[in-house]
Amino acid sequence: MKALEIKDLVKKYSETEVLKWIDLDIMKGDFFALLWHNWAWKTTTIWIITDLVKKNSWKINVFWIDIDEDFDRAKKLIWVVPQEYNLNIFSKVKDIPVYQAWFYWIPKKIAEERTEFYLKKLWLWEKRDSEAWKLSGWMKRRLMIVRALIHDPKLLILDEPTAWVDVELRKSMWDFIIELNKSWTTILLTTHYLEEVEALCNKVAILSKWKIIENTTTSNLLKKLDEEIIILYTKYAVKELPKDFVAKYNVIINSIDELEVYISKKFTLNELFSDLNVLGIEIISFKNKTSRLEQLFIKLTK
């Protein structure tokens, strides 16, 4: 069964086309990644799926429900966790998901049980009586996921869910999302992190020049990458690195707490982190270098 079907999607702002004849099928149970050459297209597509922006043509179905004909029914099956925080920051953590459940006619007792379950799953239970504004950034992001899951959506759209989250917390978030997907929640993920796509997603599509230029399995896409460039943020100052390490990974010290690493496809991040651990270098966070991701898109459009 198709969880999301996009057929001949066109969107114009005045006379400018931002999406041109987009076709995309996401099957029930998929963990699907969308990578974008222009991040405005990402936002436009998400807004169209959730009916915040009207498309010019043609159709979008969510589990065979046409969003133009019966969006009220479709929206019960879908939820977006946006990149920006959109919580009522003066509400208590435990009250935010329960209040969300009210919009879906979920009984309060069931809503409270689900809230407790997901707050514990996402390590927020101890903060349940805190006001949301007191949470750290990564805690707010987890709370938005709890709120999203309160009505048991069948299609969950995660927009940059681990942006600026450190390595350890990113891994724990991955474990939870994988578990969620195994329970047959279909997930559509947008992300800058190719490592995240590789770890989580079974399928991936790339949109460039108003259209989808790649729609394949993640393993097939990653075979086309010659290297990745990763920015590493270190806990302590790094002034010098062994010559053999620099030669292996082509490392540049951008500043005392920032390394730029060119990783050939014959190496993995796990191997890199293992070598860093041997050197006694502790990494607190990392990210793909965005400009290099754009270079990947340019390579694929040649």
Sequence-ordered SSE layout with sheet pairings:
Layout: E1 2-13, E2 16-27, E3 31-36, H1 39-49, E4 57-62, E5 65-66, H2 71-75, E6 78-81, H3 95-102, H4 108-121, H5 137-149, E7 155-159, H6 167-182, E8 186-190, H7 194-200, E9 203-208, E10 211-217, H8 218-222, E11 227-234, H9 243-249, E12 251-255, E13 258-264, H10 269-278, E14 283-288, H11 290-301
Parallel strand pairs: 3-8, 3-9, 6-7, 7-8
Antiparallel strand pairs: 1-2, 1-4, 4-5, 9-10, 11-13, 11-14, 12-13
Describe it for me?
The chain has 302 residues and is α/β, with parallel strands linked by helices. It has eleven helices and 14 strands. The protein has helices spanning 39-49, 71-75, 95-102, 108-121, 137-149, 167-182, 194-200, 218-222, 243-249, 269-278, 290-301, and strands at 2-13, 16-27, 31-36, 57-62, 65-66, 78-81, 155-159, 186-190, 203-208, 211-217, 227-234, 251-255, 258-264, 283-288. Strands 6-7-8-3-9-10 form a six-stranded mixed beta sheet. α3 packs parallel to α5 (137-149) and α4 (108-121) packs across α5.
